[in-house]
Amino acid sequence: MKPVIALVGRPNVGKSTLFNRLTKSRDAIVADFAGLTRDRHYGTGRQGKHEYIVIDTGGFEPDAASGIYKEMAKQTRQAVAESDVVVFVVDARAGLSAQDHDIANYLRRLGKPCVLTANKAEGMTDGTRLGEFFELGLGDVHPVSAAHGEGVRSLVELALEPLHLPEPDEDDEATEDTGVIRLAVAGRPNVGKSTLINTWLGEERLVAFDLPGTTRDAISVPFERGGQRFELIDTAGLRRKGKVFEAIEKFSVVKTLQAIETAHVVLLLLDATDGVTDQDAHIAGFILESGRAVVLAVNKWDAADEYQRQIVQRSIETRLAFLKFASIHYISAKKRQGLGPVWDSIALARKSAMCKMPTPVLTRLLQEAVQFQAPKRAGMFRPKPRYAHQGGMNPPVIVIHGNSLDHVTAAYKRFLEARFRKEFNLVGTPLRIEIKISHSPYADAD
Q1: Cα(138)–Cα(142) distance, rounded to whole angstroms?
Q2: First to last CA, the chain
Q3: What is the pTM of this model?
């Protein structure tokens, strides 16, 4: 599973800027005043072959007694509890503060791996101004500049070093296809995930109750159907940020994200009586980003009236348009309605994710697509795709080679994707198209 790094520090030391740098995104709002970040914020980063989860936190005041700062401190404690290693961020230009001492005392008591990082250290070549941070008793100080990207790569290496991560095995996916299929059931709290798994199992194996947040952890249950063995994973419902305050839920979010990433297929469960919410779209986006095969199921279909059903169907078409490759089923877990076809879609999604696509077939499809509709000309050049081959599975990756391909538009990639999907009947899995640009060997000659 991916290691988890928590960014901790007092307000306005640059944690969100560092978060954006690590995740190569702009997901965290950044501004030059204190207290902007209040909730935990999750993202994924990658360095070399290793991927990791980063948690951005609000300004930490361990002894805050009341108000919003008490809730922010609670969020930070939960982030630290979820993490494998803590990056304690201080401000190299503002210097040491009493609040830094309080945070250091708290982290030392935990005994968790911790990296002391002095942000905003650009231009401090001699390092004399960093000497005062040794008072915190957390070892060496690692200077970085999150805004300029200085020292960030070595920071990640330093953070991951005590975890002794094994090198990822590229052949794992090929060997897993004949074994157990890991099926994660994901969704918001109280959409019926545990009820659905209990219905499949024919027993009350999981606690199901009409109260959001009943499931606190990712629960794994073995199951066999039609000779195929499954590992059913009931995940904790992902609440909207700012709604997770109870200490007992501190591991739920990371466990759910890790369950999705390690699954072969994810069944995204929606609630017909609530429609498609922002949180549903957020979970769907994480599934797509993880490259997992996915099946959509709208639960409590029997409890929805005709108007609610129409709203749900329209919402799926608009808010979840990026999952248009996924099969959609309307079910009732409690009344056992519509569950049979869901298994067919799960099997097809897994088969599509592990589909093998021969190079001659891919190249022929590419050339036919170019003859039918050539890429749009960009200035003096028109992209010229030459041939294609498969670059990976789960999700399938198609690598296209040619000349001037840096001018291929996103719309043309979608056009190619549609033709590849139709030929190989790819349903329920993302399909990624990578462009490899051929360079002339004489380009750098005098």
Answers
A1: 11
A2: 50
A3: 0.65
